[in-house]
Amino acid sequence: MLRLRAVATTERLRLAAAGRFVHRRATKTRRPPPPPPTPPKPPQKPTPFTFHGVTWHDPYSWMSDLNDGVAMRHMDVCMEQEEKYTEAVMVASGADRLRRRLHIEMAPRLASDPCTPPVRWGPWLYYRRAEDEKQYPVLCRRSASLHDEFISYSEPSAGFDFQTGKRIEQKLVDYNQEAERFGGYSYEELSEVSPDHHFLAYTMYDKDKDSFTLSVKDLTTGSLCDKPRADRVANLSWAMNGKALLYTVTDSDKRPYRIFCSILGSNKDDVLILEEHNENAYINIRNTKDFQFVTVNIFSNFSSKVYLINAADPLSGMTLVWECEPHAHCIVEHHQGYLYLFTDAARGGEPVDSHYLLRHVAKDYDSGSNWESVLLEEPGVTIEDVDFCETHVVLILKEGKSFRICSVALPLSMGGNVPVHLSALQPCFLPLPEHVCQIAPGPNYDYHSSIMRFTISSPVMPDAVVDYNLLNGKWLIVQQLNMLQERTKTLYGTAAAASSIKQSSLPNNLGTNCQHHDADGMWHELSEFYACEYYDVPSNNEVLVPLTIVYSRKHKQEGSPGLLHGHGAYGELLDKRWRSELKSLLDRGWVIAYADVRGGGGGGKKWHHDGRRTKKQNSIIDYVSCAEFLVGEGIVQENKLAGWGYSAGGLLVASAINIRPDLFRAAVLKVPFLDVCSTLLYPILPLTRVEYEEFGYPVELEDFLAIRKYSPYDNIPKDVPYPAVLITSSFNTRFGVWEAAKWVAKVREQTIYDPQRPILLNLTADIIDGSKYLESKELALEAAFLIKMVSDS
């Protein structure tokens, strides 16, 4: 009986325990979800501002008062609250878990080569490489004559010279040590090796002075020279074959206004060559490729001037060789007795829409006469850039939406007849892949070498660093990421080409193709897997805006989400290069689109001018038109479109959202320019003439009214649903973090609160550009935010 009673008791306990377990499990499933995180609400302190008779109140102007200690303490608290809120939202939405998964996915693709492709200059190969477990790279060189047949583009430091008993590699600058010299954080802005390869002049950022400090290193001894040592240095140029250095310094507003000449090894003070007293004038210096001259560009509101300094005698004075209207682009080169000028200045008093090439006999140059045109205009063809070496000039051309690159032998064989058609110069058109969106000249320091380096970019191909031999047309891909194997493809030797190259389609009157094939090499294009399409989108019944879209042939489906990039400022090309992090979106069915709106580059000077200052609204209208096109044509599903903008592109996207908040589901704004009116009227960080020329001079009434109309901070709509937005900023950006903080606070205050569409501020580390790990972590955060806010909405 005792045993039966015990069994019965045990059974009752088991059933009771089971009941409690079932009860706990049922209770857990019925538990309501936790409330969404509450966004921070910084205090409002409305401050009145009046300008041109217009009065407005800014409730968050205290955030930018850097001289108010109490305000800055409040700002620190606000930034800490924003950081916690962003983390809480990411966790609550599941985006944090997705971010970690994306980070693991992206990191291998974003891992850069441990070494840059070596640049051959004279007897040396120069390159930068990473040091194990160190943040900053090391600048090195090695003799190009040692074991030339074993030179590797991925490991040029490998090898040992058994004749001298020394390593082949010579370390020039360890930037980890430089960072320590400047308090633990620094980065290089400029570095120039002297033409005799004996000295290296470079500038490092000093965070305490907020400027760049000049140092010169003796490459024979490895020690720093006693002089020159200077702060606030903006430009460098060598003279006297490396025995003298010219440099410019800036004033307190970061305006380059003085040129000094320092004679290396001399005890004498550096000589002041020029001081520009006009507060609206800016100075820039550079060497011609043959190091025979130093060119001095002086830009002001009244004119653009180019002077020459004889590099053999830098203290002999400056000679004016060119003068034109303000804000013109003017680059002077010298080649075998001729000066060449690449410019977009007005011709005969008439403005032009693109660049052209002039030349002049060097021995009797003057500023106004006898400059002769080199090339006749070709319909639909523009010259985007030029580069010179001793034997050739290379022209980067654009024909419609297509880029071309060709070489022309020097000296030019024009027989005294100028200008001529390009075909008369027998150009050799160099091979390119399809869908090229950008061609960037490489360093190309060696004037006497006929091998020139260019970086070829495409929306459906990782950047290819290519060496073109201009004498025989052979070409070599020296570095390109292979996305299919997710490793870097590196070629060795002296001859390689692409079997997959498509023959360039050229007008018969332009020239001939120079194609040299080798089945061992190929462009690592991804067009088999990712489609690239082009559209012309009508905008406001005025212009057709070029729109480029990229999508996965395998994963795109009906109702795809989309991401629309835009920039539209400074006449700069929109960055449409293949970006490895976007593969994670493409492979999830996203459409990536690029809107070449007015204000940006690629459409000539008029295209740029039609999207700046009082016409800045055109950029925003163009972007909205492209967004409407994507949704209206069914390329992107309604309510699944996101925007993306960096810096001035952040202004573009934020302004577009203000106009059509219903059109966008989300947006990512990276270090955006948002509080335009206050920043231009009351700059906290020094602004240059370029910023005012681009966004407007608020002291002028027409510009002021235009700024008030498009400024994102001043035009946030009231009582409407707003898309989810992720803003990334830091304390070391061109536009202060207070701009992002003010905009975030005002959007939350004025728009309808929706926890499913959060407004997040993410503060990044200042060193993110120097760390692939931190960069991939931030990119994974952006992608996770977009997927959760758009795809999973």
Structure report:
By secondary structure, the chain is an alpha+beta fold. An 8-stranded mixed beta sheet has the order 34-35-37-36-38-39-40-41, with helices on both faces. Strands 24-25-26-27-33 form a 5-stranded mixed beta sheet, with no helix packed on it. It has a 5-stranded antiparallel beta sheet with strand order 28-29-30-31-32, with no helix packed on it. Helix 3 (95-110) packs across helix 13 and helix 7 crosses helix 8 (648-659). Its EC number is 3.4.21.-.
Uncertain segments of ≥5 residues (pLDDT<50)?
1-28, 486-508, 517-521
Span between N and C termini?
64 Å
Q: Hey, roughly how much beta strand do the residues contain?
A: 25-35%
Strand order of the largest sheet: 34-35-37-36-38-39-40-41
Mean pLDDT: 86
Number of helices: 13
Estimate the global geometry from the Cα principal axes. Answer: globular
Rg value: 30 Å
Keywords: Hydrolase, Protease, Serine protease
Biased composition (Basic residues): 21-31
Protein name: Prolyl endopeptidase
Domain Peptidase S9A N-terminal: 43-478
